[in-house]
Amino acid sequence: MLICTFVIQTRVVAQATDADSVPATLTKIKDLLAQHYKPESPPSVRAIFVPIQFDSCELRWKLVSVSGPFRYTTQTSVNLADFDPTPPQVIMVKMPRTDRWAFELRTLNDERKVKVEWLVMEGSRVKDRREYLGSRTSFGADSQTLTQDIADELVSVIKQCAQRRAQQNAGREPR
């Protein structure tokens, strides 16, 4: 009887530890992306990564760039449980530059679950706005090693988010 209780308590502690690691891991990823992610843009255009919600399985961020009088914003919303947990391949984005590495995440079964809002502003006027659903998103950094570290950490969180969803869905099924 004592052994069963110990095993159950160990499992609950392990689940709590996993759950607690998601926000901490995402904070680490967010900080690395804010410092090292260089969204692809023409050399004369400065683009930045802006995290909006980066502390749970539901993520939101935007990429903002300014060119002349125009501000371009691409806001992306995802649930990490929707992504394929297969580790992505890290590739060099543009040769011969070696300071731009990236990886792509794909949703399970290529379902369109990545919500993207694209907005073009001129001053305070909206010039163009589009919303669409996609099945992929990507991130990157300024070194291959760092990009691989971000990809590995993100895959770890994707697995935890998928496990949480499976546990929630199992709790909803009639017995």
> Any low-confidence stretches, pLDDT <50, length ≥5?
1-17
Class computed from helices, strands and strand pairing: alpha+beta
The major sheet is characterized as: 5 strands, antiparallel
Number of domains: 1
Strand percent estimate: 25-35%
Number of helices: 2
Helix content: 25-40%
Q: Please trace the helix and strand order, writing H or E for each element.
A: HEEEEEEEEH
Rough outline: globular
Mean pLDDT: 85
Taking Cα atoms only, what radius of gyration do you get, to the nearest Å?
Answer: 19 Å
Give the tally of β-strands.
8
Question: How would you portray this structure in words?
Answer:
The protein is of the alpha+beta class. It has one domain. 37% of the residues lie in helices and 35% in strands. It is built from 2 helices and 8 strands, in the order αββββββββα. A 5-stranded antiparallel β-sheet has the order 1-2-3-6-7. The chain is globular and about 55 Å long. The protein starts with a helix and ends with a helix. The relative contact order is 0.16. The model is unreliable at 1-17 (pLDDT under 50).
